[in-house]
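In the design runs reported in the main text, the only information available to the sequence generator was the tokenized backbone. The following block is the verbatim input for one such run; it is reproduced so that readers can re-run the procedure and compare outputs position by position.
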């Protein structure tokens, strides 16, 4: 089973659609996901997308502070909505899930 960082997938899909139509962002999400599944030869997957809150800001208020003046891609909300539509398995979760798969001793916050 693949665990897919949907935040990265959506960001790349949206940035590649800059200057084009929002339908391009939706197409990119589908295409990148399909290519990933084919390349990995695994069609069981869950896409993880960061939820509304992120514990990292509580632990370290300066988390991503260097990015505050960097505009997000115009179609990022379109890509995020596209990946959450029916048929794509998505869970909103914190990223430590990925770290625990690598190092089970890492603590998963509350």
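Verbatim output:
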């Amino acid at each position: 089973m693949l665990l897919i960082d949907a935040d990265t997938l959506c960001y790349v899909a949206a940035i590649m659609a800059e200057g084009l139509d929002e339908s391009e962002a939706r197409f990119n999400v589908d295409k990148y996901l399909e290519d990933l599944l084919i390349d990995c030869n695994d069609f069981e997957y869950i896409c993880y997308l960061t939820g509304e809150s992120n514990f990292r800001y509580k632990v370290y208020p300066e988390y991503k502070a260097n990015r505050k003046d960097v505009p997000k891609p115009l179609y990022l909300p379109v890509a995020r909505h596209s990946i959450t539509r029916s048929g794509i398995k998505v869970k909103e979760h914190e990223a430590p899930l990925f770290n625990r798969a690598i190092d089970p001793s890492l603590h998963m916050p509350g």
